[in-house]
Design a protein that fits this description.
Layout (H helix, E strand, L loop, with lengths): L17 E3 L4 H14 L3 E4 L15 E4 L6 E4 L2 E5 L4 H10 L2 E2 L11 H6 L7 H4 L6 E7 L5 E5 L31 H5 L8 E8 L1 E2 L3 E9 L2 H14 L4 E5 L1 H8 L11 E9 L6 H12 L7 E3 L2 H24 L16 H16 L3 E6 L4 E6 L4 H20 L18 H4 L2 H14 L15
Parallel strand pairs: 1-3, 2-3
Antiparallel strand pairs: 4-5, 5-9, 6-10, 7-8, 7-9, 11-13, 11-14, 12-13, 12-15, 15-16
Helix pairs in contact: 10-11
The structure holds flavin-adenine dinucleotide.
The site of flavin-adenine dinucleotide has 37 residues, from strand 2, helix 3, strand 9 and helix 9.
Length: about 450
Amino acid sequence: MNRSYLEDASGFQGHAEKVFAPADEAGVAEVLRQASATGKPVTVAGAGTGVTGARVALGGWVLSLERLNRLEVHPGLARAEAAVTLSELHRAAGQSGQFYPPDPTEAAASLGGTIATNASGSRSFRYGDTRKHVLRLRVVLADGRVLDLPRGEPVDFEVPAIPAPATTKQTAGYHLRPGMDWVDLFIGSEGTLGVITHAELRLLPAPGALLAGVVFFRGDRAAVAAVEDWRANARARMLEYFDRPSLALLRGRFPEVPEQAGAAVLFEQELSAEDDPEVERWAERLETAGALVEDSWFATSARDRERFRKFRHALPEAVNDTVRRNGFLKMGSDYAVPPARNLEMLEYYRRRLEQEFAGRYVIFGHIADAHVHVNILPASQEEFARAQALMVEFARQAVALGGTVSAEHGLGKRKAHLLAIQYTPEHLEAMKQVKRRLDPQWLLGRGTLWPAE
Ligand SMILES: Cc1cc2nc3c(=O)[nH]c(=O)nc-3n(C[C@H](O)[C@H](O)[C@H](O)COP(=O)(O)OP(=O)(O)OC[C@H]3O[C@@H](n4cnc5c(N)ncnc54)[C@H](O)[C@@H]3O)c2cc1C
């Protein structure tokens, strides 16, 4: 069996008896009917860019959607099968003068995977998470029944109110709200409630022009203060943060990162035209913020913006490569806090990481959403165990500040233990009741979110 079905981007590995890759939705339903008749656990595999072990089977069958790859683009919407990748959708939408706002930086992800994790990424600050852009889903249930679900069709059972964190993004556990629709239930359910075969997704008109910049700062304090100001006063669609250790790691691949830079912020601003007064306003903002303006990089062309995107994406890639080369699994956080608690959380991370892992960690990511990723680069088993404990401590702190234990990656198998930090036993029981209702044999995504019943 091809090993790529049995691992994900975090390095987590599993095992399975068989892989099925049906050609269409009817084939997906047939595999699920057989599984249900014989009691076989089924793990749904998208493109494998997830970082929580969710798509990695621990026994049973793998159901890969790789052959469901048809895509149609229309004014205002795209109709896509589950395996269409984000980069395919971005390209096709661009050719019709439109764009799909969610931009989890890993464009090799499948749309089915991004819906199943409620992915968000760098543009969610302006446009929100995947949930906000899904208009319709087709889903196959564990017993092979097919549901066609337009937005607004309510679920046919009582749903309790589970308090949501006051964060701008969240994807920990099931999204349960009284009066909710089916579409919201399946988004973010990590392949544990049903198999998404098709989606209808909202597209927006592409902006007239874009200004982008990688703005370098001498130190962290100025960079973070600039973000706090820009979050409130600029209409950027992206504000992404890189701390000093992140820049040090990136210099291996991008030696042009200025030597005196101790932090950076990547921004993107939509413009009505290239002479939009916003360009001038950004020049003023950068001066006021004390940025290293002469050394920073700016772009209005698509080619240069693509270079910046690669620069941003190279960081998690370098982190994942480094950790795996050292023989460990990725050890990264995905916690978000309410924007007003951003500085407090950052200071907490920095203080504890300097105490325990000085020189072996990075902090980067979606700072405008108060959602940065901490990644620890352990060098021994003892450090790996200590890093795991520190990640749990950080999860508790994020929740104490009103935050979430997963903003965009989901929890999968590797982080399922964090769910109980955010929710009470009653909330968890309400989620499990939904699982029992839709998948009474507990076959789908066994080990993801919940230990098997
Ligand atoms: C370098 C790097 C950077 C990343 N940056 C971001 C980021 O900025 N923001 C972000 O949100 N994520 C990010 N990710 C995480 C990842 O890209 C997302 O989790 C992605 O949404 C997973 O899609 P996939 O197709 O690879 O799914 P997989 O990894 O194959 O599966 C993920 C989960 O979705 C389920 N699933 C997949 N397809 C379906 C389906 N059709 N129906 C039901 N369930 C399904 C699987 O069972 C599993 O639970 C990053 C990953 C990497 C490697």
